[in-house]
Amino acid sequence: MFKKLFVILSASLILLSGCMPFDNLKRDEVVEDEANENEQAIPLRNINTTDDKYYKSLKNYEPGVARGEISYGVDNRIDVDELETGLMRISKETFSIDDYYFQNGQYLSKATIRNWLKRTSEEPGQSSDKFIQKGLNPGINEKAYKNASIDERKEMLKQNPKILSYILEQNYLQDSGKDSVKIAGISLALSFHSTYYFTVQDDQGRLHRDEVKLNASEVKEYAQKTGQEVINRLRQHPELQDVPITVGLFHEEKHGAVVPGNYFAKTVVKGGQTKANWENVNEKYYFFPSSDAEEDHREDHNTFIQFEEKIKEYFPNYIGVVGKALYRNDRISKLTIEIPMQFNGKAEVISFTQYVNYLVKQYFPDEVVEVNIKSSLEQNESLIVSDPSKEDSVVHIY
Asked: How far is 187 from 185, CA to CA, in rounded Å?
């Protein structure tokens, strides 16, 4: 385990930082592990910011019954992460982290999810679940498709793309007395393609890949109808007839995107009810610097460029600075910055980290900011977490 953390106030740090503009900087606590070679640094997930308060988990952990299935539906890893954490964020508005326990989904099996992701024209596979197993994606003429040429098949798929890519389930539990818990809420995320990527195989076994960009308004219309149908199906289960159901609708990003997609609508259906009343969700991720960020949030983009320029002026081994910002209701909810650098020793890391912390306070005083400073070999060197609700930042040297 880790040995006791201690404050580093070395002479080298004083010498290196003496020329920096720290007149208005209250010295933050810089902590470092006095670790053995086989010991690991504190993982990032152990440091929570304002938005990163998590649900309590059960002592006896149970993996979701559809564990691992998400990777077959959602193509981008960043979309997978946002689909899960974003659904938790939406769920907090209905299921308080103080009153509910989190559990991975226990009702929708792999077989049911696979069947629901099929087309309405396809035969469902075997499933022991009691839910309706019919597919939810738009159907095609299966007989005509089998007899069509490669080009004709491509055109059929472009005209009738699959839109729904995955259904993620989360369960929320409450104490029921005598050291037991009961299901008290369920949340579902329905994830939808922005671009439909597909493969057609010819008679020789060769694969022909193609894609079609989906119309966003048509996706939204289909998503709300599909969400309503999923709610109707959930209510068939005896244990889910009287619990609140939260549903979030998620729009994926295209392949190779540097930021994830976003939730665009949500609903909360009270216990015993089925009617969904959809509410728009105003969330979107932006990459800094980028033309999209400059066009939609010019002031924030310019501030980021100024922040980057200050780093470039100070440190000769500058490589680059990139950021990812989650906007909620057109304001930055959280900004994550990554700075890869070339360092020549621990003293440089400490000095540079303190300077960056100073800049964060100057340029982003009202935002939750997480800065990850890495070496050119992608090794974590330091972490800064700045929260406007707290006077001092958390600064960690690995």
From this structure: 7
Residue with tokens 């209905």: 94
Residues 139 and 211 in one domain: yes
One DSSP character per residue, 266-315 reads EEEE-TT------EE--EEEEEES-HHHHHH-HHHHHHHHHHHHHHHHH-
How does DSSP classify residue 250? E
195: tokens are 């671009």
What is the rounded distance in angstroms from the CA atom of residue 171 to the CA atom of residue 245? 10
Please state whether the predicted TM-score (pTM) of the whole model is above 0.85: no
Question: Is the same domain home to 208 and 223?
Answer: yes
Helices 346-363 and 298-314: angle between axes, nearest 10 degrees? 150
- In sequence order, which residues have a C-beta less than 8 Å from that of residue 128 and are 6 or more positions away? 109, 111
* Same domain, residue pair 268 and 291: no
Residue 372 C-beta-side C-alpha neighbours within 13 Å: 16
**The last residue of a domain, from among 257, 281, 305:** 281
DSSP summary character for residue 108: S
Domain count, the chain: 2
In the 8-state DSSP scheme, what is residue 348?
H
Q: What is the pLDDT of residues 273-327, one digit of tens each?
A: 999 999 999 999 999 999 999 999 999 999 999 999 999 988 877 788 999 999 9
Rounded Cα–Cα distance for residues 195 and 198 (Å): 10
Do 199 and 65 fall into the same domain?
yes
Strands 331-341, 164-177: pairing is unpaired
Picking from 375, 342, 337, 343, the residue whose alpha carbon sits closest to that of residue 356 is 337
Measured CA to CA, the distance from residue 165 to residue 226 in angstroms comes to 12
Of the candidates 141, 142, 72, 78, the one whose C-alpha atom is nearest the C-alpha of residue 113 is 72
* CATH number of the domain enclosing 193: 3.10.570.10
Max Cα–Cα distance, the chain, nearest Å: 78
Range of the domain at 29: 6-40+287-397
Q: What is the mean pLDDT of each run of 10 residues along the chain (398 residues)?
A: 34 34 38 38 34 68 78 84 95 94 93 96 92 96 94 96 97 86 95 96 91 96 98 95 97 93 97 97 96 97 96 83 96 95 88 95 96 87 94 92
Q: Are 95 and 187 in contact (CB under 8 A)?
A: yes
